[in-house]
C-alpha cells in the first residue's frame, strides 16, 4: 500500500510538472512561441509598445519599410496568436512576393493606393487574387500563400497588417532563392527559372547584399 501511495504521489508530481510546461506551450502548429516569462516578473510594459505612428525608412531599393509589433516587441503576446505590422511605401515602393508560413493576414490601408494580391496553390491552378485598395479598404491573405503589396499611387502609402500569430515568420521569395547562405547552385536556378547563367549570378549578387526592409528592434 505504501509503495502504491508513493507511486501515485510521484505520478501526480510528474503530471504537475508536465502541466507547468504545457501552459507555456502553444498548441496551434502555425504559432511558434518563445520561452514564457516568470509571471511574478511580468509588468505592464510586457504588454505595451509605442511608436507605430512613426514612419519607417523607405530609402532603399524596394521603397518600403515594415515595422513589426510581435512577440519580440511585446512579450505579453506570447501564445496569444496575434501581432501587428506597419507598412510604409514610397511612391512605386513595394513589399515583394513573400510567404507567412505560420499565419493568415489582414491588411488595412490608411493612406495611398495599394495593389495587393496572393496566388493560390497548384491545386487551384495558381490563380491570382488581386485588388487595388484605397484608404479604409481591407484585404485578406490566407496562410502560406505567396503574397505582395505595391504602392501604385503618386504619394506615400501607409497600411496596417494584422496576423493570426504572435510570430508569423516571413519567407521572401527572391531573397530565399537567390540570396541564401550558402547560395543555391547556379545550375539549379538556371534550369528552374529558364534563365542564363549571367542573369542568375547577377540576381544572386543583388540579393546577397540586399538590405533588410524590416525596422530593427532597438533594445
UniProtKB/TrEMBL annotation:
Q: Which CDD domains match?
A: cupin_OxOx
Q: Binding positions for Mn(2+)?
A: 98, 100
What Gene3D superfamilies does the record point to? Jelly Rolls
Extent of the signal sequence: 1-24
Domain Cupin type-1, residue spans: 50-201
Main location as per UniProt? secreted
Binding positions for oxalate?
100
Q: Tell me any Pfam family this protein matches.
A: Cupin_1
The reply to whether Zinc figures as a keyword in the UniProt entry is no
Keywords on record: Apoplast, Disulfide bond, Glycoprotein, Manganese, Metal-binding, Secreted, Signal
Q: Establish whether keyword Signal is in the entry.
A: yes
* Single GO molecular function: manganese ion binding
**Compartments reported by the entry:** Secreted, Extracellular space, Apoplast
One Gene Ontology CC term in the entry = apoplast
A biological process term (GO) from this entry: plasmodesmata-mediated intercellular transport
InterPro entries annotated for this entry? Cupin_1, Germin, RmlC-like_jellyroll, RmlC_Cupin_sf
Entry similarity comment: Belongs to the germin family.
What is this protein's record name?
Germin-like protein
